[in-house]
Amino acid sequence: MKTIFSDKAPAAIGPYAHAVEAGNFLFLSGQLPVNPATGKIEAEDIEAQAKQVFANIEAVLHEAGYTKDDVVKSTVFLSDMANFGKVNEVYASFYDPHKPARSAFAVKELPMKAMVEIETIAYKE
Question: Which residue ranges of the chain lie beneath pLDDT 70?
């Protein structure tokens, strides 16, 4: 196993790695909409928060030598299910035309009062 840290993704807010590579799989920790330069959530609307989450995912994937086309599964955590449609639009544009498997859940609260967090699994032969 290999742990992955990217200086282009926000620092972890707890005792975990950005990702762990195990064999041909890469397991990314949940990414929040934190700007890596400031360590803060700057986006106030759900679309901008989702775009920042995907920028952070892409940074971690790149650091590990993967691309978004290697993603096989995502889990989306939302602070409000009313934001599902808007996050879905950003998600679709990020992965287009690739379509990984996905689950989405509404949760009571996310770290740093984020509106969205996404964890990701990628696979490469």
Answer: none
Contacts of 114 (CB under 8 A, 6+ apart): 32, 33, 34, 41, 49, 79
Is beta strand 19-22 parallel, antiparallel or unpaired with respect to 25-31?
Answer: antiparallel
Domain count, the chain: 1
What range defines the domain where residue 119 resides? 2-123
pTM check: above 0.90: yes
- How far apart are the C-alpha atoms of 84 and 71, rounded to whole Å? 20
Please give the Cα distance from 103 to 9 (Å, whole number): 23
The pLDDT score that the predictor gives to residue 13 is: 87
Task: Provide the CATH number for the domain around residue 12.
Answer: 3.30.1330.40
Cβ atoms of 124 and 64 within 8 Å: the answer is no
Strands, E assignment, the chain: 2-4, 19-22, 25-31, 71-78, 101-106, 116-123
